[in-house]
């Protein structure tokens, strides 16, 4: 029986730390390969996948700002870091036979395509994974905001935010053993309960455009795959 995915086109949002080794910094080729394999399982279902990746494993802008660096400069360094991560992920995908393209919102023509909305959509339609780097191309915006913005621009059906936790809880499950995971929750409840889902600019953009957000554990063996198949026991769906 052929499995039918619940979504045709998704945005997968990952932090830069997903590519880091045990130290939490740098790019670990083994991690890149592991993520590529997870994306391949989804890709093989016929799902069009666009990836937005952070740069925290290479540079944290807050570190520079704390030492007196201008916010704009700190953010620009971070945006360049996301391109480095995107190239590493592209290499891992290509080596397992998944065609992919890196697009960047920061002009870097020698190593990646400029982000062009219609070109990104065309790549997806041709069966290529598109890795969207450089954030929004502007300082003061996180890669969460980039994921929300790109989701709207390329007509994705959902933003899947892959983290180290398997959803949104009533409290911090590491501190409160009675914390309960929400299987689904509304935008308004997230705001009222001040639940930490993503930065407020990104969250508000998703809310205003009725873009569902799914929070899940990237490292749980099958969670990403099962989420794309529409299994509601995976993660927390915000809609």
Describe the structure.
By secondary structure, the protein is α/β, with parallel strands linked by helices. It has one domain: Carbamate kinase, CATH 3.40.1160. The protein is built from eight helices and nine strands. It has helices spanning 29-43, 61-66, 71-94, 117-125, 143-153, 187-192, 200-208, 223-228; strands at residues 9-14, 48-53, 100-104, 113-114, 129-133, 158-163, 184-185, 213-217, 236-238. A nine-stranded mixed β-sheet has the order 4-3-5-2-1-6-8-9-7, sandwiched between helices. Helix 1 (29-43) crosses helix 3 (71-94) and helix 5 packs parallel to helix 7. The longest helix has 24 residues, at 71-94. The two termini are 30 Å apart. The mean pLDDT is 93.
Describe the structure in brief.
With 239 residues, the chain is α/β, with parallel strands linked by helices. The chain is 36% helix and 17% strand.
